[in-house]
Amino acid sequence: MGPGTSTSGTGSTAGRRHRSLAVAVAMLASGLLLVGAPAAHAAPGRAYVTNFNSGTVSVIDTATNALVTTIVVGDGPEGVAVTPNGARVYVVNFNSGTVSVIDTGSNTVVATVPVGVRPSGVAVSPDGSRVYVTNSDDDTVSVINTATNSVVATFRVGIWPVGVAFSPDGARAYVAKRPLRRRVGRRRRLQHGGGHGLGGPRPLRLGRHP
């Protein structure tokens, strides 16, 4: 699993597109986005798991694999990403159209950011200044300023964007899309515009190798 990667189920309806437990673990030290001790306010060795059906995030101690706490977020949490310093966790809520910002020191939600329709993927820039969120039902990407936890830009990409990942230098963000597919509650339409067709049947998430 690559950095910032999350998993989801598939199906023909919104409820069946996701598993009951959508897992997205982030570990900075080993490629899964670990919240490590060097962060000023981060608890060491924690994994954050999104639970789609219950609207919660489970926090797991990676040393003992024990549940530490459960955090209530929005409706249908899916993608999750951790800032490079480990201080914040960004969780996209698919049904709410929001992003929950978790402080890893207190394991509480400190901000809720409205984004687009049915957000799915999320990635934090390497310098920690921006969070990119794919909005699968309105074909856009929202850009969040991490200093203010507010949306500073929204731009269109292509039909059904689902995953996003940054290049190591932060100069590029790569967005995975589902072309030529029928979306839930939306009419069938064709994709037009730029981008690379990856050839896979159902691209969902992107991760980069360090």
List the SSEs and their pairings:
Elements: E1 46-51, E2 56-61, E3 66-72, E4 77-82, E5 88-93, E6 98-103, E7 108-114, E8 119-124, E9 130-135, E10 140-145, E11 150-156, E12 161-166, E13 173-177
Antiparallel strand pairs: 1-2, 2-3, 4-5, 5-6, 6-7, 8-9, 9-10, 10-11, 12-13
Describe the structure.
The chain is mainly β and 210 residues long. It has a single domain (1-210), classed as Methylamine Dehydrogenase, Chain H (7 Propeller), CATH 2.130.10. It is 0% helix and 38% strand. The chain contains no helices and 13 strands. The protein has strands at 46-51, 56-61, 66-72, 77-82, 88-93, 98-103, 108-114, 119-124, 130-135, 140-145, 150-156, 161-166, 173-177. The strands form four sheets. A four-stranded antiparallel sheet has the order 4-5-6-7, with no helix packed on it. A four-stranded antiparallel sheet has the order 8-9-10-11, with no helix packed on it. The chain is globular, with a radius of gyration of 16 Å. The protein starts with 45 loop residues before the first strand and ends in a 33-residue tail after the last strand. 40% of the residues are buried. The model is unreliable at 1-42 and 183-210 (pLDDT under 50).
